[in-house]
Each structure stands twice: as C-alpha cells, then as structure tokens.
C-alpha cells in the first residue's frame, strides 16, 4: 500500500490527499502513476475475461461513478450504501481523508469487509461510537480548512 511505503506516498499518493474534505472532482485528482496503479484492478477483470466493448464501457463508467460517489461528501438517497451492506460510501471514505495524509485506516474503495478483516476500520468505528465529529459533519472544518476540536 502506498500509505505504508514512505517514498511512494511522498512522491505519488500525497497528491490525492491534498484534499482533507474530498469532493467528487477530487476522486481522479492524482499523480499519473497513482492513476495507473489504482485503475489496474478495474482494467484487469475485462482483460482476463474478454467481453463486449459495451460491457467494458459500462464497467468502466460504473467504477468511475463509484469513485465519484465515495469522494462526493454526500450520502444520497440512491447511494449504494443504502442497498449494499458492506459498501464504502462517502462518510466511510471521507474519514480516510479526514484523519490525515498518513492515514492507517479505511483503505477500502468499494467494500468495507477487508478493512473489518484487517482491523483498519477501528478508528472510524471508535469515532462513530463516541460521537466524535466525522467528515459527515463538515462544520468540523472551519473556513481555513483546519481541523477544529
């Protein structure tokens, strides 16, 4: 993971974490090599199982819509979080950006079960339990974009 490898984080992935409070257009805001690394899983599936070009484009659009949704900062009524039990959603992924660039939690990009299995969701779960302000309450960020306790 690029968060645990100092060189890769500082030179590549740090660009994506310039926004503590992500918004939809910050999802693709990344270093070019980060885009290649993170988009490779979305490209590997269709490469392993050849499909019709329309199916490929639908898959590609779905993956981009998912990235926009998790970086939007909103839980829309039609958000997959409401219908898919282990879906990441905006609140969950926003916490990853909110805690800082060297975040050691909430790595999942689609489903939260991997974070649960590896224990990397404990900070988020703890913050929810104690009622600490999380990214879903954006009034915790003042106009200078600094954290307010």
Automatic annotation (TrEMBL):
Segments forming domain Fatty acid hydroxylase: 1-120
Keyword Transmembrane: yes
Xref: Pfam families: FA_hydroxylase (PF04116)
MF GO annotations: monooxygenase activity
Record bears the keyword Phosphoprotein: no
Keywords: Membrane, Monooxygenase, Oxidoreductase, Transmembrane, Transmembrane helix
Chief location: membrane
Places the protein is found: Membrane
TM ranges: 35-62
Protein family (similarity comment): Belongs to the sterol desaturase family.
Name listed for the protein in its UniProt record: Methylsterol monooxygenase 1-1
Organism annotation: Stylosanthes scabra
Upper classification of the organism: Eukaryota, Viridiplantae, Streptophyta, Embryophyta, Tracheophyta
Chain's gene name: SMO11_4
